[in-house]
Amino acid sequence: MLKNLLIKNYALIQHLEMAPNANLNIITGETGAGKSIMLGALGLLLGNRADTKALYDEDEKCIIEGVFDISAYSLQHLFNEEDLDYETETLLRREISPSGKSRAFINDTPVNLETLRNVSRRLMDIHSQHDTLLMGNANFQLEVIDIYAGNALLLSDYQNTFRAYKKAAKEYDTLLEESQEMQKALDFNQHLLTELDKANLDNTDQAALEEEVEKLENAEAIKANLNAALEYLSRAEFSVESGLKSASSVLAQIAKFSAKFASFRERLGSMQIELNDINLEIESEESELFLDQERTELLKDQLDFLYALQKKHKVDAVSELISIRNELQDKVDKALNFDDALQAAQEKKEALQGEMRQAGEKLSAKRNEAVPKLQENITLILTQLGMPNAKVEIVHERTSPSTYGLDNFTFMFSANKGIALQELKNVASGGEFSRLMLAIKYILATKTSLPTIIFDEIDTGISGEIAMKVGGILKEMAAAHQVIAISHLPQIAAKGAAHYFVYKDEEALKSVSKLRKLSEEERIKEIAMMIGGANPSDIAYANAKELMKMN
């Protein structure tokens, strides 16, 4: 329910504020006074496109603000989905800056227009006599049937299973595509993996191989130099070893004269021990080293294979080749075992498809059960509204599964005797359309908590007794749902719980549209003027009082 509306700096409105009644609110006024401007402002709260040309003062910001009591609408889930704080009293605001920048807010949280639309369309329902697109929309017609049939839970169950099925189907298609790509690459990956496995990478030390090859290739020179070193160290007449022995013997003779001399001798002894160890190791290396052509070629082949793999995979180290090998192994394993995952995904998809179809059949059955009664009720109300020859037929077709179910329903309509039934978008217009729309909304109002309903000249093309009946229906609807009706008929204006008058103030340099809530006496005068013109007669006043009294 709309509790308060604020419009600032929009079109001809400088500042307008109203607190609508919870029931039927009537808005009247002269043509061009600003009634349609109010609808335009409300349209901005519904997420319609903003235009800086709509600013009253081009240097000031335009603000449209609506405060709604949403406690009866069960919208907590919607606020959770949109990541918004839920408040039973919710504020929608739209701002347009002089530069043209538009901003939207819900409970002071900035939101994009899509979020604003998702929320606001659950709070306000604006219908004009030209709103044929909505009535002709297949999804809207389905929504009418579901509300009438009380299908909220069945529809929710179906949509949950439909979403789960679509997700499972997408997962299966993704796996199938991935499987096909993997199968294409399997032979190539297996070839690469075989090559890398052949290299025995886990047991390969590239640096050690390179060192051994280099040693084997230079064995003769190394062996000669090792023998030369042994000559210098121990084998020659004046070798290092004989020199150390001689020096140690000399120092032994004077060691008793000084601790320092004794330490010199001890240190030379340590050097002798170290020299002996070096000699032994060099002799060992020299004796073991020999030119092994066969091993040299074997190691060189192993290194050449390793270098070729590194070049092929554009890496420099064995560790990188191991990483590539492990990745290839994972891909090959996954490709070889993918059938199990694909089978599981297919079974899940088919199971959810069955659940979805089962839920869809229940929904479809409930819809078809409700259709005859809905046709009958719409036709009955249209008869009451002065269309005794009107016919409504709702045609059912099966469709492939969609968000809305397994059905497509088309509302067929004929307003006059002898005229063939046609789709709404082709036949309903003007007053006929307005009454058909009113009949549908009236029926829905008995089934659910509708948002604030705003009718723009729902009384087009009617008068007299039919206008009285339209007013009565609006009043009945407003007993449980807030209704705002822009009207030009006194019979309807008299039915309102509150009456607002839109007028144009010409006193300032620039025309300004204003809104005033009428008192009881002012209402009688306004209704009398609607009956008898600018200067109503006593009879017009009497008729106005009679209409008010009937209300």
Please give the structural blueprint.
Blueprint: E1 2-10, E2 13-18, E3 24-29, H1 35-45, E4 62-69, H2 76-81, E5 89-96, E6 102-106, E7 109-111, H3 113-120, E8 124-128, H4 132-136, H5 138-149, H6 152-198, H7 206-217, H8 219-235, H9 240-254, H10 259-288, H11 293-313, H12 318-336, H13 338-384, E9 391-402, E10 405-414, E11 422-423, H14 424-427, H15 430-445, E12 452-456, H16 464-478, E13 483-486, H17 490-493, E14 498-505, E15 512-517, H18 520-532, H19 538-550
Parallel strand pairs: 3-13, 3-14, 8-12, 12-13
Antiparallel strand pairs: 1-2, 1-4, 4-5, 5-6, 6-7, 9-10, 10-11, 14-15
Note down, in words, how this protein is organized.
Helices cover 57% and strands 18% of the residues. By secondary structure, it is an alpha/beta fold. Among the domains are: 1-23 and 30-123 and 496-515, P-loop containing nucleotide triphosphate hydrolases (Rossmann fold, 3-Layer(aba) Sandwich); 180-336, no CATH class. The strands form 3 sheets. The protein has a 6-stranded antiparallel sheet with strand order 2-1-4-5-6-7, with helices on one face. Strand 14 and strand 15 form a beta hairpin. The relative contact order is 0.13.
